[in-house]
Amino acid sequence: MKTQSLKAFFILGFLYACAFFFFSCSADDNRYGFTPTNPNLSLSKNAFEVEKDKGEVEIIFEANLPWRIESNSNWLVPNLVRGEAGKHTLQLTHDKNLALEDRVGTITIKITDDSKEIITVKQAKANLDDTFSHYYVKENGTGDGSSWEQATSLPKALELALNNNDVIHIAEGNYQPEHTANIDSTLDKDKTFFIQTNLTLIGGYPQDATTGAKVDPTRQTILSGNNQSVHVVTIFAQKITNLAVTLKNITITEGNADAGASNLKIKGYDVPRDHGAGIISIESNVVLENCQVIRNNSGRHGAGIYAVKQSEWTISHSIINENVGLNTNSNGGGLFLNNSKASLSFSDISFNKAGGVAGGIQTLNNSEINLTNVTVTNNQARANGGGIYHRDNSKSIMLNTYFYNNAATDGEGGAISTHNGAILHLISSTVYKNTSTKNFGAINNQANNTINLYNSLVFDNPSAANTNGINPAGTTTATQSAVHNQILGEENVASGTFTPQQLDTANPLKIRPATATSPLATQGFSVEELMELRNRLGSTSPIEVFTSDLDEQARAGSRTIGAYRL
Question: In CATH, what number does 41-123 get?
Answer without folding.
Answer: 2.60.40.10
